[in-house]
Design goal:
heterotrimer, A: alpha/beta, Rossmann fold, six-stranded mixed β-sheet, four-stranded antiparallel β-sheet, disordered N terminus, B: mainly alpha, MetI-like fold, binds adenosine-5'-triphosphate, binds magnesium ion, cell membrane (chain A)
């Protein structure tokens, strides 16, 4: 992005004019694809108090593929992601309007079981948030809470101990998150003792262990070194065969490398353009999107 | 220290060395006066007032001439005073109690009969446990009374208090939380004598009438009343501990499809375990040190209950021993009351240090160093 | 799709099922409330409605609840109602039900059947293990509802068959206490209703993780309500009992601008035709508070400023922290002993107002130090840096930036601390005393200059003085009979004074916290 710095003065001028002049054409975000949509978002508005964080977002997320969300800081990418599994319900000031459907079922309907929703739509947060427990317990947390695995004294006494299965699951999940090699000799250590990048990969492993259908990732690689990043990117590619992945990233190359389609959000909480990744990066409709992906903006 | 006090002197346009000498002199005069005053006060002299005036004079002079340095020294003295008060308490309490400790030896915790293991006498018997005429002062009954009432109080305040804290911190809708939390904090202020009054005029007679206890007042009532009294404190402090668990951790659990309750049990409670136990320990400290409710509810019985576990017995606690007997005590008897004070002081101090250590551990744990 | 069985996002129970569970909870809460009233003897076995006594009503309600809960569980088990129970129970309920069965089995064996101790213990153990094992091994819906419903039915049956009647008594061996039936019935009934409600609430959410959450929330919520109700009742009770006497004869003459409040403005007198008042005690408490604030607050604020602004973190601050926290938790009666040993001999060997002031001042010291430190710590470092960057000296920064910003927090701490010490009795018992009939101390009018050191004397300070909390204690020790109204009124005034301090303190704290957040 050295180009951006060299042109910074002219960019600033162009940005301001560009922002006021360009009208967003709804057609730009009308992405058509083959296959069924896993999630369908319609006229989504999110407010924090009086702040309008997302403005009339409509998009469909195809099943078993990687969808990238890009856009400048503060444009509402995390907010959008958190709306998909209703984590926004946890924020008091947040208010959500519009509709999101998962496999055709309305997510924001009355009586929706949030636990069931979040079992199916997993999430990796922007900042790593491991539990203050052992690495093993972090990974097995979800399955144990869902009652998929029984461990402990009582289970052992009843001959229903799933200890072996649990170990297997822990190893498999940690391997897929490209962290097994680093932690396999200290699975019982407190996860808070890991480095930031390791913590993030642990959180990815933790999410995989619960076997969701949709995985939301908020900049999962922002704290990782290039090697770990490469591993995570491989993992995401592999995940797409089985899962629906939605990933927020600030790294254009990364978005270009791993995603099949890309949605560009710009300041003001608007979805400006949504299309095949190739199209977005090579020949976007919107001037502002072009500026942004070529690094002249934001 | 960010800025040295010489910069102020520079402001006033005097030479640095001059100002420093002035500061030093004022400080010496003030500090010296204070030391002399303290010494005179300890030796119970009416002349104490002279050095006090000297200290005030030095401070006033310092305020006008070397303000920054004066403030720093005076605040330093205030800090030292805090420690000195604790030191004085320890010294004066122990000094008064030493004779009775010497007189009784280990028998200060003695039982009626000697305690023998394999024929070796570990604890000689004292016959009568507490007798002012025989100069026998075994604190065993009061320690037992304190223990019993504290245990009952904590059985009430511990579980109910932690559950209350969970409700306020994790379950209650925001509107409820914002009105209940201050309410609980205000309730923590009800003076203990008021609880004592209620226990004395209401609960004691009620229990006597309906539960057929032999007399008015018993340890069970005191325990429950103290438990109620400690409840708001436990709730309030435990609630603080629970809310100090970062939201991102709870979010992580919920995003994995755990229920709120599973998150509370699996993440919030373990993460704040130290803080919550510190809250309960604080409650224990309150219960151990609670005086007035026990004093007015219990009769002045200095015998162990029969049998020991009879919570409807009337044995008094360490605190109520002091409060109900200081009036007619002198000599060795009074010293025995001070010995009771020492036992109280030491146990509460231990509780305080333990709960501080636990709390420090919680902080470290949440910061990821444990 | 990744998972073999995909659940729908919504899990709706049939309406009939929900209505049944709600019914159980409604009846259960009524039974619990009735039981509480019965324990407090507001409702007794003689209270009757529609030809049936209160206890019969309670027993019938329990029986109905019990059978409904059992029906809910069986209905879920055979698939009439759609639920998601776990395949087996969890440890907590197993222990709880096992414990209840243990107690019920043992008591039935020893009390009703009259078996000897060993046999009763064996029966208790068998019952406990059987029920606990069942809860653990059975599917969750059965394991939750059968024992809960069974317990309610059991208690209902005991009462209806008069095995457990008002006249029944139980004197557990070794305890000097006798539990009569009219106390035991409501306690058991309340417990049974609680357990039945718990099971019904779990059923309402379809058992499983959601059911356990609802059931736990039910208990935790009920606990919170119960706690608030109990504490509020205490206060209300004192209000009701004390208000009348405390406010008796209040008169305001707008023309003469004369205001009279006899209870607070009159003293204790010996005339049988005039009611006594607490004026001296009010004045004494006011002076105590003033003195304690003068002693404690400057020291505490000074220490807080030094610790947070000047001192480097190290051994010294650690020592002071341990000392402050230690002082904070030192029992008040120990402060009293200290004052008795240290201050009393130095102030003319008698209990005195001055000694009371100083002891309470020492108690105030840690309270205010801790809150002030927190308030000063909360001042953002940017303020200090900004001020320092402008070339302002450290002391000027503290004086003009730090302390003013932290002042609301400091004041709040002082108010809360004053509330606490104003209600303290134990220390002034030992160092100040002061009888019911003492006059109000006239501190200002008693200053005198003398030729000998200490040159200034004040008799009022060196004498005992009455104070509100001590007054209440004195009322108790003087024998309450005949004086009870006076005691209630004193308790009311004391409570009003102390709780107003707390309310103001808590209120200002919330106000300033909000303001800080909005900045
Ligand atoms: N909890 C919250 N309360 C109030 N406002 C919020 C909250 N979270 C986000 N916002 C606001 O909503 C807008 C969008 O925030 P969001 O976190 O979604 O941005 P983002 O695109 O993820 O940015 P980044 O790339 O920096 O992570 C921002 O203006 C932010 O200030
Ligand atoms: Mg973000």
């Amino acid at each position: 992005m050295s180009k951006a710095t060299s042109e910074s003065t002219t960019t600033a001028e162009r940005t301001t004019t560009g922002e006021t002049d360009e009208r967003v054409d709804p057609e730009w975000s009308n992405y058509e694809f083959e296959g069924t949509p896993k999630m369908a978002v319609e006229d989504l508005d999110v407010y924090y108090g009086d702040d309008h964080a997302l403005d009339g977002i409509s998009m469909e997320i195809p099943e078993r593929s990687v969808t990238a969300l890009i856009g400048p800081s503060g444009c509402g990418k995390s907010t959008f992601l958190r709306s998909l599994n209703r984590m926004n319900d946890r924020i008091r000031s947040a208010r959500v309007e519009g509709s999101i459907r998962l496999d055709g079922e309305e997510v924001y309907a009355d009586g929706v079981d949030l636990v069931e929703l979040r079992k199916r739509v997993g999430m990796v947060f922007q900042n790593p948030n491991p539990f203050p427990k052992s690495i093993r317990d972090n990974v097995s947390y979800g399955p144990r809470k869902h009652g998929d695995l029984e461990t402990g004294l009582l289970a052992r006494a009843l001959g229903r101990d799933d200890g072996d299965e649990l170990d297997e699951l822990v190893e498999r999940s940690l391997r897929r998150a490209a962290i097994w090699e680093e932690v396999n000799d200290r699975l019982d250590d407190n996860a808070l003792g890991l480095s930031g990048g390791q913590q993030q990969r642990l959180c990815i492993a933790r999410c995989l262990a619960t076997d969701p259908e949709v995985i939301l990732m908020d900049e999962p690689a922002s704290a990782l070194d290039p090697i770990a990043t490469a591993k995570i990117e491989d993992l995401i590619a592999e995940l797409a065969e089985q899962y629906t992945v939605v990933i927020v990233t600030h790294n254009m190359q990364q978005a270009a490398r791993i995603s099949e389609q890309t949605a560009v959000f710009l300041t003001g909480g608007e979805l400006v353009e949504y299309d095949d990744t190739e199209k977005i990066f090579e020949d976007p409709e919107s001037q502002r999107v072009e500026d942004y992906v070529t690094g002249k903006f934001g | 220290m960010r800025i040295s006090n010489t910069s102020i002197a520079g402001f006033e346009g005097r030479s640095v060395a001059d100002a420093d000498r002035g500061v030093l002199l004022t400080g010496l005069v003030g500090g010296g006066c204070l030391l002399v005053a303290f010494g005179l006060f300890l030796s119970n002299s009416t002349l104490t007032v002279v050095p006090v005036v000297g200290f005030l004079g030095a401070t006033t002079y310092g305020w006008f001439n070397h303000q920054a340095a004066t403030v720093k020294s005076v605040t330093f003295l205030a800090t030292v005073a805090t420690t000195v008060v604790l030191g004085l308490i320890s010294v004066f309490l122990i000094a008064r109690a030493v004779p009775v400790f010497q007189h009784m030896g280990v028998r200060i915790f003695g039982l009626t009969d000697p305690v023998r293991v394999f024929g070796i006498t570990l604890l000689p018997g004292v016959g009568e446990l507490w007798s002012t005429s025989g100069d026998v002062y075994s604190l065993t009954p009061m320690v037992w009374g304190t223990l019993m009432t504290t245990v009952i109080a904590m059985l009430v305040a511990g579980p109910l208090g932690v559950a209350g804290a969970i409700f306020i911190a994790e379950i209650a809708p925001p509107v409820v939380r914002e009105s209940v939390k201050p309410g609980i904090e205000i309730l923590a202020g009800i003076p203990s004598i008021v609880y004592g009054w209620l226990g004395f005029v209401l609960i004691s007679p009620f229990v006597y009438e309906h539960l057929g206890t032999p007399g008015l007042g018993n340890m069970a009532i005191v325990g429950v009343v103290i438990g109620l009294m400690a409840l708001p404190t436990v709730v309030s402090v435990a609630e603080d501990a629970l809310t100090s668990v970062p939201n991102s951790m709870k979010d992580g659990s919920l995003a994995l499809g755990a229920t709120d309750w599973q998150t509370i049990k699996g993440i919030t409670m373990p993460a704040s375990f130290s803080g919550v136990s510190a809250a309960v320990l604080l409650g224990v400290g309150r219960a151990v040190g609670e005086t007035m409710a026990a004093t007015v509810i219990l009769s002045n019985v200095v015998k162990l209950p029969e049998p020991l576990y009879n919570v409807f017995g009337n044995t008094i606690s360490l605190t109520s021993l002091i409060a109900s007997q200081y009036g007619n005590a002198d000599g060795m008897h009074m010293q025995a009351l001070f010995a009771a004070g020492v036992v109280l002081f030491v146990s509460v101090m231990v509780l305080s240090v333990v709960s501080q250590t636990i709390e420090a551990r919680m902080k470290r744990k949440l910061e990821g160093q444990a | 799709m990744s998972t073999a069985t995909r659940h729908s996002l919504r899990s709706d129970q049939s309406e009939a099922f929900t209505r049944l569970t709600d019914g159980v909870v409604g009846v259960g809460i009524t039974v619990i409330s009735l039981s509480v009233l019965a324990v407090g003897r507001v409702v007794t076995g003689d209270t009757a409605a529609f030809g049936l006594g209160a206890f019969e009503w309670i027993a019938l309600a329990l029986a109905a609840m019990g059978s409904t809960v059992v029906a809910l569980g069986v209905g879920s088990f055979v698939g009439t109602f759609e639920t998601n129970p776990e395949e087996r129970g969890t440890v907590g309920p197993a222990l709880g039900f096992g414990g209840i069965a243990f107690a019920a089995g043992g008591l039935t064996a020893s009390q009703t059947l009259g078996l000897p101790l060993v046999a009763s213990l064996a029966a208790a153990l068998v019952a406990g293990l059987a029920v606990g094992g069942f809860v653990t091994l059975a599917r969750e819906d059965l394991g939750t509802t059968l024992p809960a419903g069974g317990f309610a039915l059991f208690v209902g049956a005991l009462v209806l068959t008069d095995v457990l009647a008002a006249g029944w008594t139980w004197a557990p061996e070794g305890f000097s206490v006798t539990f009569p039936g009219y106390m035991v019935v409501p306690v058991l009934a309340g417990l049974a209703a609680l357990v039945a409600c718990w099971a019904a609430v779990s059923a309402r959410s379809g058992f499983g993780a959601a059911g356990r959450q609802s059931a736990a929330y039910f208990l935790v919520g009920l606990n919170a309500i119960g706690m608030l109700v109990v504490l509020a009742t205490l206060i209300l009770f004192i209000g009701v009992k004390g208000f009348g006497r405390a406010t008796q004869g209040i008169a305001f003459d707008p023309l003469a601008l004369e205001f009279r409040w006899p209870f607070v403005m009159d003293g204790y007198n010996f005339r049988p035709d005039q009611p006594n008042g607490v004026f001296p005690a009010v004045v004494g408490t006011v002076w105590l508070v003033i003195g304690a604030v003068l002693v404690g607050v400057p020291l505490a604020v000074g220490a807080a400023v030094f610790l947070s602004e000047y001192a480097e973190r190290g051994r010294f601050t650690q020592l002071v922290e341990v000392a402050t926290n230690g002082l904070w938790s030192t029992p008040s009666v120990v402060f009293g002993l200290f004052g008795y040993a240290f201050l009393v001999p130095r102030f003319g060997n008698t209990t005195s107002l001055l000694a009371g002031m100083m002891v309470l001042g020492f108690m105030l010291l840690p309270l205010v130090t801790i809150t002030s430190r927190e308030a000063i710590k909360a001042v953002p470092d940017e303020y200090r840096d900004a001020s320092a960057a402008l070339g302002v000296s450290q002391w000027e920064t503290i004086r003009s930036v730090v302390v003013p910003t932290a002042l609301p927090g400091i004041v709040t701490g002082v108010i809360l601390g004053v509330g606490r010490i104003a209600g303290e009795t134990a220390p002034i018992l030992l160092v100040m005393a002061g009888g019911l009939r003492d006059d109000a101390p006239s501190v200002l009018g008693s200053f005198q200059f003398v030729a000998r050191p200490p040159f200034v004397v004040n008799d009022a300070l060196l004498q005992s003085a009455p104070a509100l909390p001590y007054q209440l204690y004195a009322t108790i020790t003087a024998g309450v009979s005949g004086n009870e109204e006076f005691g209630w009124a004193t308790a009311f005034v004391l409570l009003a004074v102390v709780l107003s301090f707390y309310a103001i303190g808590v209120g200002t704290r919330i106000y300033f916290r909000r303001r800080l957040q909005h900045e």
